[in-house]
Amino acid sequence: LFLQVLLLACAEDLECIPGFQQKVFYIEQPFEFTEDQPVLNLVFDDCEGNNKLNFEVSNPDFKVEHDGSLVALKNVSEAGRALFVHARSEHAEDMAEVLIVGANEKRGALKEIFKIESNLGIPRQKRAILATPILIPENQRPPFPRSVGKVIRSEGTEGAKFRLSGKGVDQDPKGIFRINEISGDVSVTRALDREAIANYELEVEVTDLSGKVIDGPVRLDISVIDQNDNRPMFKEGPYVGHVMEGSPTGTTVMRMTAFDADDSSTDNALLRYNIIKQTPTKPSPNMFYIDPEKGDIVTVVSPSMLDRETMETPKYELVIGAKDMGGLDVGLTETATATILIDDKNDHAPEFTKKEFQATVKEGVTGVIVNLTVGDRDDPATGAWRAVYTIINGNPGQSFEIHTNPETNEGMLSVVKPLDYEISAFHTLLIKVENEDPLVPEIAYGPSSTATVQITVKDVNEGPVFHPNPMTVTKQENIPIGSIVLTVNATDPDTLQHQTIRYSVYKDPAGWLEINPTNGTIGTTAILDRESPYVQDNIYTALFLAIDSGNPPATGTGTLHITLEDVNDNVPSLYPTLAKVCDDAKDLRVVVLGASDKDLHPNTDPFKFELSKQSGPEKLWRISKINNTHAQVVLLQNLKKANYNIPISVTDSGKPPLTNNTELKLQVCSCKKSRMDCSATDSLHISMTLILLSLFSLFCKSFL
Questions:
Q1: Could you say which of 70, 145, 267, 603 would form a disulfide bridge with 568 (CB–CB 3.0 to 4.6 Å)?
Q2: How far is 569 from 563, CA to CA, in rounded Å?
Q3: How far apart are CA 262 and CA 269, in angstroms?
Q4: Straight-line distance from the first to the last Cα atom of the chain, in angstroms, rounded to the nearest whole number
Q5: CA 234, CA 256: separation in Å to the nearest integer?
Q6: How far apart are CA 103 and CA 699, in angstroms?
Q7: CATH code, domain with 430
Q8: Which residue range(s) make up the domain with 208?
Q9: CB–CB of 667/578 below 8 Å?
Q10: Rounded to two decimals, what is the model's pTM?
Q11: Within a 10 A sphere around the Cβ of 163, how many other Cβ atoms?
Q12: Per-residue pLDDT tens over the stretch 358-391
């Protein structure tokens, strides 16, 4: 009332402005609004007598009488933070806001409304512009433009004009609001959307004819009043919750919350939740409850009804509704589906389908011999169903292993070490089964969680076995043909069968060996050569067969490794065998010779290099040792262009030593302009001389 009087005083002598004479009302929060008791008086004037005046209130718990009195329709303890009142007559309509505040908030709110410090609203002494806040409902229908308020100037100046600026006028989004520059009427040009822009802060100025500002600027606040034009939205789906079977009543499963784009301070965004449908409806059509305000879904049945193994399905689907306007019939509704899965706990022990299983296996064979089957009522997708098998007795040699088939949950019993019929023809195993997950405390494994497996071993004809295998022997290479290398020994593991064994050669790469088929004596049929390509790292390998007299016969394979000791049976070889030199060379070191030997040390280096006797009155070259394997040939003078054969002997260190007499071919070439010409003029210069000398020597001997 104080605010109303103050506004009327400030607007004294001003023309009538259609609409609420006060746009924002403040009331102090009481303990409770009492039914039919006036809360405050709202003053609306359309300046034409208020014919056919009607009021609408945003909160259905309140109404406005024809005289403007705001009253509660019932006792209300909580009305929210704001009410909106819409008034409409034949000639005008307007919106007012009623803010519910505490006592301390009220003083601050009045100060804000008057804008005393901000030069807004009620003018100061030096201000002549009155720009009261304007409230506009969103989603208004045409026609547009529509008058929504008026700016008043108490001091009249001839030729003065109003000018409006700000976001929504000359700033994006442009052209929403405009002002009559003469009358000050503010109009909106199109429907507003509060969810896009909720408030506009504009400025009003007064200018003279030249455009010079003579008053202002004063802030004009325009607020968009929310309408319930947005349905609630479930944004976070899919919604899936889990609850353990046997959970206590009241166990929280999940929370479902929706979003409403309307004003959160109004009932337009006040949501309430409920369960519309539950599928399936057994064992109870009301397995769950949702908190209407928070959206928490909880169990409401006893733990015994949450038994996964007795349910039609462990999955429930709830259709959840969210309605605004606090759940009233006028509210907008949206739905979403919540999927609730009843999780399994290990409350059933696995049990073998029978107490005893039978298996038969041939001796010497490995692999799966029998599948053990179990039953378990728990969820196959969990560790409460998956089985773990253990052999608890009858496997001292660790010949058996058992593993779980991940698809069937069966126990696959396997032989991992070949069984021997001659040692034991029967085996008895005791096997237990458990789950990957531990059982719940009130459940224990019983006698059905153990089973016996009887295994029968079948006798088969096994091949003879060489002892040892592989067999090794050391022999010198080049031993005489017919020499005995080794006598092999093979036995038949089928001790209960009386069988004979015969021997044969299986693989003899070089064809050097033979074997006596009866007693297994191996002898040589050719010279053993350590330097043969069939010998690797001084070892020659051959394979032999031992064949029993069974039906069908069985075969065993034995490997023989012969280590061959080296004998000095290879002369050293010389390299290179050709050298070239210029006839005018200053460096007379012709070539570095090297020697190699196929034998092993000590039948190789150090090598001895020597020149054979040189003919003629002068010596033409010499050879000198560099190291154990190399020597250098040096010319003692320049030679004419020709081909020369230099006789050289190289001897190894074996006992007895072996010597290789060979010739080094030396080409003496003419060298001009970095080109070497070795065309063969006088090609056998030294060789012909040697031939003539030899003929002369023979002639002399004949003559004598």
A1: 603
A2: 17
A3: 5
A4: 170
A5: 8
A6: 154
A7: 2.60.40.60
A8: 129-225
A9: yes
A10: 0.47
A11: 17
A12: 999 998 899 999 999 999 999 898 999 999 999 9
